Amino acid sequence: MAEDGFDENRVGLDHLAFEVEGRAVLDDAATMLESMVIGHAGVKDIGVGHILEFRDPDGIALELFTPAA
User: Fold this and answer.
1) Domain range spanning residue 47?
2) Buried b / exposed e across 26-53, counting CB within 10 Å, b at 16+?
């Protein structure tokens, strides 16, 4: 159905995560998102590493992750 868009509360995809190489990559990505006026939650320390969360144009939650050094 063409009008059937993404809904994170429906069974299926919740979010998509990509591992990146180091905290500096997350900081650079945050800067790039800001320059493109794309909202994000900032780089967060989650204990086992750091994440940067944002959404794609369809509203799908995306995450960049780097493990703790």
Assistant:
1) 15-67
2) beebbeebeeeeeebeebeeeeeebbbb
- Residue 1 belongs to some domain of the structure: no
Read off the pLDDT of residues 57-69 as tens digits, 9 standing for 90 and up: 888 889 999 999 7
**How many CA atoms does the CB half-sphere of 67 hold within 13 Å?**
1
Q: How many domains does the chain have?
A: 1
DSSP-derived letter for residue 39 is -
Q: What is the CATH number of the domain that holds 19?
A: 3.10.180.10
Residues 34-57: pLDDT tens digits? 999 999 989 999 999 999 999 988
CB 30 within 8 Å of CB 11: no
Overall pTM surpassing 0.70 (yes/no): yes
What Rg value do the Cα atoms of the chain yield, rounded?
A: 13
